[in-house]
Specification:
The complex is a heterodimer of chains A (375) and B (410). By secondary structure, chain A is of the alpha/beta class. Chain A has helices at 25-34, 62-66, 76-88, 105-112, 124-136, 155-164, 179-192, 209-219, 263-277, 295-309, 312-315, 330-339, and strands at residues 10-19, 22-23, 40-41, 53-55, 114-119, 170-173, 198-205, 227-228, 230-238, 248-257, 285-289, 352-358, 363-371. Chain A contains twelve helices and 13 strands. Chain A is globular. With 410 residues, chain B is α/β, with parallel strands linked by helices. Chain B has two domains: 5-242, Peroxisomal Thiolase, Chain A, domain 1 (3-Layer(aba) Sandwich), CATH 3.40.47; 255-399, 3-Layer(aba) Sandwich (Peroxisomal Thiolase, Chain A, domain 1), CATH 3.40.47. Chain B has helices at residues 20-29, 64-69, 72-87, 92-95, 111-124, 131-134, 141-150, 166-179, 196-204, 237-242, 268-282, 300-314, 325-328, 335-349; strands spanning 5-13, 35-36, 49-51, 100-105, 156-160, 185-192, 225-226, 228-236, 249-258, 291-293, 320-322, 351-352, 375-376, 381-386, 392-399. Chain B is globular. Classes of the chains: A alpha/beta (375), B alpha/beta (410). Chains A and B meet through helix 5, helix 6, strand 6, helix 7 and helix 8 of A and helix 5, helix 7, strand 5, helix 8 and helix 9 of B.
Chain lengths: 375, 410
């Protein structure tokens, strides 16, 4: 039935999302298909912000969602990733920090072969609060020691590994909006190099006042967009006859750098190189998702995609505008949107989906996927 | 078929050297880069030693756009990359038609600038944060800045935020990309700039040494934070041969594990597994390793755990194991890149750099750490350990390049 997947090809076999539509894949799929905006007025808990609304995961309080055991110092971006991981992975493997697993050897071996690859920029809010305490308290070291791990962006990936005892490679990619595609490329290479048997790969981004201010200043004088947050995770593994039914095959990721501001031309070149490398002609591209960058960057991104594939493929993937600008999680949510597409059973099966991504720092890229029969 | 991967160029920005010859001289002399911290106000800390890069002039290496637009850490990585490319006998023009991977590891990214933004916010509110400074914060600039500076539009530029072992992650990514034929050239390494937040975090955890970093010493008191960048040019042996490049060493193998145990305390099992994976990937028996460049932070917990893991893997007589952080400080994301370069140079020049500030070896570590003086030695295989918060372990194995002794491929 999956004749379009070769033995050993990296495929997604499961996924989860914690998004402004709510917790879980079903909430995401329903919400993204309906397409209603999730932007809401911010309450007072974020203090002064440059924009008075955002797309938050509704009711997401780390300790309310994940429980009070071992979560006192879990920051929001890690909490979102942990919630997505809990949706993705079987519950019986949860561990708490510093405890030995009681699993039998077979299970233990499995976890040695399971990698975690996360696209995230960490939490600028926690970093800001920490430095601020150091500068304002009566002693410069009157800071919260429990917040130290949140000062590094690999905190979330490390916690996912601890909670689920995933002892394989554990990597964090910090390249902004393109990090999601970079994470997929990294995860794919871990599989093909034999460094992992399966990879929990995805992204996490949080809303915070500090992030909002940094985005506001970064893009000034362009008007700020509405920020979103959340986490999407995928289980990537090499397909075998014994695998769970695959949802999509990850053919590859092509990524380049725009040096001269002509993002449209750079992305078009990147797409063409990616298609050529995988022996795909542009007319095989059936579905496409752009990263909806703000302003001219996004206009150029869309122009590059439509110049090669026309408008039709973009209509086949649900629009992500309703969840706002999700930063490092953009690429992962785009892949989730591809998996949430609404079409008659079988339509598009065997065809190609393209996910593009651009970052104002200069990186751009595309992911190439083969759609598999929905079930 | 998998390809053999070699190192053909290195670039260094550190507290002890801003060129490769200076770096070799410093490693041989056992020079310390430690001094008082000047990059941020240390008033109120009982002690604040640091290994700062003093007198760094980015204009020596970088164009005006990079000098004006990049943050301190990204200037380090771009400068070290420039140095490494020149050292490899490559030109930017010569790289244009090659598929280049740029992979840079970091702990803090643009946190030196983020700290300044927090100070600006305290002074004038969040609306007063300068946009030019804000644009230097994203960590992506550490790799993209390299590609920009070298004009590499086709580069796959990635910043890996895997903290204190990130330099090894980057070298390992280069190895895998080259083996798989996904890249022709890999510019890999790590970079970080010292900052108040990082220092304060380690200080608050009681991990900052009052004066000096003393890996494996019974009286060790912790880390001395540092900064800098190390970048390596990796390419396939075939590519190096075709262009007649001088080969420093081979990247023999690489291992990655996660402790999945504790956020900040290393775990013996995860570290030992990582070393075993790296040695297996390299096709090297433990008995063949001539020197280990340890993660060796100089904290009680790290050095004890790492030593036990080394004894677990290497048995009762492990190879000489040096702590380069005694000289360079803990340069965070740059640490395993700079240590990797030291391994490459040790193989090239057949010496082992010392562990300085060493008085008496901790019996709980029981390693020959080459105290205080470099030694001449036959170095065929050098293993480079990197451990990080999050239990992110990464180990790289370098080897002398001996084309005639092994068949092409693995």
């Amino acid at each position: 039935m999956d004749r379009s997947v070769a033995e050993g090809a990296p495929v997604v076999t499961a996924w989860s999302a914690v998004s402004p539509f709510g917790i879980g894949r079903d909430a995401f799929t329903t919400g993204v298909r309906a397409g209603a905006s999730t932007a809401r007025a911010l309450g007072g808990e974020h203090g002064v912000t440059p924009v008075d609304e955002a797309c938050l995961v509704p009711g997401f309080d780390v300790r309310a969602v994940l429980g009070r055991n071992g979560t006192r110092n879990v920051d929001r971006v890690s909490g979102l990733a942990l919630a997505a991981a809990r949706e993705l992975l079987p519950q019986d493997t949860k561990g708490t920090e510093g405890t030995q697993g009681s699993a039998d050897d077979a299970e233990s071996r499995d976890r040695d072969d399971t990698a975690v690859v996360l696209a995230t920029s960490g939490t600028v809010q926690e970093m800001r609060d920490f430095t601020r305490s150091s500068l304002l308290e009566t002693r410069p070291f009157y800071v919260n020691p429990g917040a130290v791990p949140s000062g590094v962006p690999n905190c979330a990936a490390g916690l996912v590994a601890i909670w689920h005892r995933l002892r394989g490679p554990n990597a964090t990619i910090t390249t902004g909006r393109t990090a999601g595609l970079h994470a997929l490329a990294y995860a794919r290479r871990l599989l093909t190099a034999g460094r992992a048997r399966q990879v929990v790969v995805g992204a996490s981004e949080e809303y915070s006042a500090m992030r909002a201010w940094l985005e506001f200043h970064h893009h000034a004088p362009a008007p700020p967009g509405v920020l979103g947050e959340g986490s999407a995770l995928f289980l990537l593994e090499r397909w075998t006859r014994h695998s769970p039914p695959p949802l999509v095959a990850v053919l590859g990721v092509e990524s380049q750098v725009c040096l001269d501001g002509d993002v449209e031309e750079a992305l078009r070149r990147c797409l063409l190189e990616g298609l050529r490398r995988h022996g795909i002609s542009p007319d095989e591209v059936w579905a496409a998702s752009t990263s909806h960058a703000a302003g001219d960057l996004g206009r150029q991104e869309r122009a590059a995609v439509t110049s090669l594939f026309g408008e039709q493929p973009l209509t086949r993937v649900p629009d992500l505008t309703p969840i706002g600008e999700t930063g490092s999680a953009t690429g992962a949510f785009q892949v989730a949107a591809v998996l949430s597409r609404r079409e008659p059973a079988g339509e598009g099966a065997g065809r190609i989906a393209v996910v593009t991504s651009v970052d104002s720092g200069g990186t751009l890229g595309c992911g190439l996927f083969r759609l598999l029969p929905s079930r | 078929m998998d390809q053999r991967v070699v190192v053909t160029g290195v670039g260094v920005v550190s507290s002890v050297a801003q060129s490769v010859p200076e770096f070799v001289a410093a490693l041989r002399a056992g020079r310390s880069g430690a001094g008082p911290v000047t990059l941020f106000d240390t008033t109120g800390f009982a002690h604040a030693p640091g290994c700062e890069v003093v007198g760094f002039d980015p204009r020596r290496w970088l164009g005006p756009a990079a000098v004006a637009g990049l943050g301190r850490a990204a200037q380090f990585s771009a400068s070290a990359a420039r140095m490494a490319v020149a050292d490899a006998g490559l030109t930017a023009a010569g790289l244009l038609d090659r598929r280049v991977l740029v992979s840079v590891g970091t702990t803090d990214g643009g946190s030196y600038e983020l700290d300044q933004l927090v100070a600006a916010e305290i002074a004038g509110g969040p609306g007063a944060m300068p946009a030019a400074l804000v644009r230097r914060v994203p960590a992506g600039a550490l790799s993209v800045g390299v590609a920009r500076e070298l004009g590499l539009a086709r580069a796959h530029a990635v910043t890996l935020g895997t903290a204190c072992s990130a330099g090894n992650y980057a070298i390992g990514e280069g190895l895998d990309a080259l083996r798989a034929g996904e890249a022709d050239i890999a510019l890999c390494g790590g970079a970080d700039a010292m900052c108040r937040r990082n220092f304060t975090g380690f200080y608050r955890l009681g991990l900052i040494a009052p004066h000096s970093c003393q890996p494996f010493d019974v009286d060790r008191q912790g880390i001395v934070t540092g900064e800098g960048a190390g970048m390596l040019v990796l390419e396939t042996e075939g590519s190096a041969r075709r262009r007649g490049a001088r080969i420093y060493a081979e990247v023999r193998g690489f291992g990655l594990t996660c402790d999945a145990h504790h956020q900040t305390t290393p775990h013996q099992d995860g570290v030992a597994r990582c070393m075993r994976l790296a040695l297996a990937d390299a096709g090297v028996e433990p008995g063949e390793v001539d020197v280990i460049s340890a993660h060796g932070t100089g904290t009680k917990a790290n050095d004890r755990t790492e030593s036990r893991a080394i004894h677990e893997v290497f048995g009762r007589r492990p190879p000489r194991t040096v702590g380069l952080k005694s000289m360079l400080g803990h340069t965070m994301g740059a640490a395993s890149a700079l240590a990797g370069i030291a391994c490459v140079l040790a193989i090239r020049d057949q010496f082992i750099p010392p562990t300085i500030n060493h008085h008496r070896t901790d019996p709980d570590c029981a390693l020959d750490c080459v105290p205080n003086r470099a030694v001449s030695a036959r170095v065929r295989i050098a293993q480079n350990n990197g451990l990080a918060f999050g239990g992110n372990n990464a180990v790289v194995v370098f080897g002398e390049h001996q084309p005639e002794q092994r068949p092409e491929g693995r």
